[in-house]
User: Which sequence fits this backbone?
């Protein structure tokens, strides 16, 4: 089996190691188990992410592999995600609460998706601190997940994040192995930053 490679980011300036080493693998160990303590630690990190006006407009559905919740999330993954994500130890459905209860769900909390993303970034960083990896997925069946968990209209499924222990790229179908070990890239800062004084 191929060795698991160091995927450290090549950065234009020094950043914290937990950030430079964080990446989103697709090859997870199908036998690895996350403990209840690890799950709680990741959820606590998500809970304490920044929140506009402290509204905390995010909710989560968490399923460990082999549980009903995991299966209910897994069946609504799309495309290639259905191939690799079932090997993860944990699936976390992140939900933005776009309006208060009883209000018109037409975007009263217009920042809810942003705050939900911040909470999942915290979760991914905490996973890495625990020796785990996290891979967020946008390829999900939003309407079907809402129906699956009987979510009100103001609850919008945003992503599903797979969490687990990294495994050899050899566990992936051949055409995806190269992506697992390819050099990580990002746009340069001068393309991302529109103004800086």
Assistant:
């Amino acid at each position: 089996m191929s060795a698991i490679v160091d995927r450290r980011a090549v950065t234009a300036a020094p950043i914290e190691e937990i950030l430079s080493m964080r990446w989103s693998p697709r090859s997870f160990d199908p036998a690895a188990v996350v403990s209840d303590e690890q799950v709680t630690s990741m959820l606590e990190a998500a809970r304490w992410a920044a929140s506009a006006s402290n509204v905390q407009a995010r909710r989560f559905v968490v399923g460990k592999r082999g549980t009903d919740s995991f299966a209910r999330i897994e069946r609504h993954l799309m495309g290639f995600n259905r191939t690799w994500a079932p090997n993860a130890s944990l699936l976390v459905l992140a939900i933005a609460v776009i309006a208060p209860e009883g209000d018109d769900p037409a975007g009263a909390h217009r920042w809810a998706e942003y705050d939900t993303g911040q909470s999942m970034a915290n979760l991914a960083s905490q996973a890495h601190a625990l020796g785990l990896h996290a891979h967020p997925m946008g390829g999900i069946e939003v309407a079907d997940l809402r129906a699956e968990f009987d979510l009100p209209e103001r609850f919008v499924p945003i992503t599903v994040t797979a969490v687990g222990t990294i495994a050899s790229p050899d566990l992936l179908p051949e055409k995806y192995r190269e992506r697992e070990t390819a050099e990580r890239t990002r746009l340069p800062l001068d393309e991302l930053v529109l103004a800086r004084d």
Observations:
- The chain has a mean pLDDT of 93.
